[in-house]
Amino acid sequence: MKWLNPENVVALLTAVVGVAAAVGPFWYERRVPRRKRIGYRVQMDTPIGGDARNGHGTVRLGLFDDSPDMSDATLVLIRIENDGAQGISAADYTGPDTHGLTVHFTDRTVRGLAVTQTNPEHAHLMAHFTPAAGMRHDLNRIHLPKVPLNRGQHYKLLVLLGEGGVGSPVRVTGGLQDGDVMPNESTTPDDKPPLFSRPARMITVALAVCVVALATLTVLRDNAAPPPMGCATGKLTVTGSTAFTPVAEELAEKYQQQCPGSEVTVDTHGSTAGIRGLDEEGRAAQGGSPPLIALSDGPKSNGYPALRESRVAVSAFALVLNDRVPLKGLTTTQVRRLYAGDIRNWKQLGGPNLPVRLVSRDANSGTRQVFQRRILGRGEPANSSQDCVGPDDSSSTVIRCELDSTEQVLARVAALPGAIGYSELRSGTGPQGLHRLRLDGREPSIEHIGADGYPYHEIEYAYTYGSPPADSLVSSFLAYMTRGSGQDIMRTHGHLPCAAPEAAKPCAGE
Fold it and tell me: Are the CB atoms for 383 and 401 separated by under 8 Å?
């Protein structure tokens, strides 16, 4: 199970503890049967005689000095309360005698007692403590009446004891229908009350341990490169745009490094050829989606309805000129005149006496289609030269050759005096011997597309045949490219990912 990792396990445990802490009390309140309960606790047990057996005598003043046999006397204060979930009536006591509870003092004898109640709202309880109701004491025991107690009500017994030491056990016994008589754990007046109950402390510690463990795992793995979203295995071929080949190759390399078991091959022959090949593969698959992605400089034509598009990035393009021609920029009108054959020598534009040589891409090239659509507004002139140096036919008015890839175009323009061509805007320096041209006074830059309207740009598309399965390598690689860390790779190559906020308008075609 891919989700089963330390971070997820700790996060799940944290969630379980949190939900249990929130839901547990409500569940207990509604589902656990409500029991009746009388709780008791000793709030004070202190010597008042000068010869106490625990070794801590007291100073005796007043009546204590005049009373006989007070040397070993002790005072005990006991709180008896209804700390259960329901009220207790006199009928709930199950003892056969008239009394309901019995207080036992081990090794001590009862000499006298008083019942106290400091809450005015509970003063009516005092009427129950009469001999007729079963109130009496005998040797080391006190018998208490069947006192009805609403939830939270209590009374106290102040007992004078002798013949025993401080701290001797004290027990309260009695029968209670559907309930218990038990000591409770409330604090005495001299004790410091706890800030949290025991369950609260346990839950707090559990949550703290979970949070610390999760934070530790996060810190330890912070420097590790996260894997692409939804790594998948299998084989995949990326075809199409040669202008986007450097990006595709690095994307494939990094994806394979981070996703063992995947094999991504980049085999590009131009946007049009890639789209055509994808459509043919899809038809041959007979309803399936082949493991193939076609990259295209610009949108496909309408003749491929089965292909589904993903907008990947905005790519800027540039005109490149051989360094023997020192011009730094051209206008769109001048570019159109060059490709129409109206300008045949660079000296017509203030340059050296060199013939204009147009180095173009073949008909399958998406880069060529972008140039024609964005700059020329029409098709390029016919191919007239095989070597790009001179026309094959002396009657040709334009020297123009076609090459198979962007790399070939750049290499030929750099080597041939007077040559001009076009390519996508790469972040690297490219071959020596050529330079980029400003267009209508605007620098070729991806940042200038939205800022000052640099016109020579296009959306880079990724096409699949139909919708590939969500767990396929095709879907995973597309997600890595468009939403994952592949965006950083595209930026390093001079492309602006469509997922970036600043690419919203260009990627929408605005």
Answer: yes
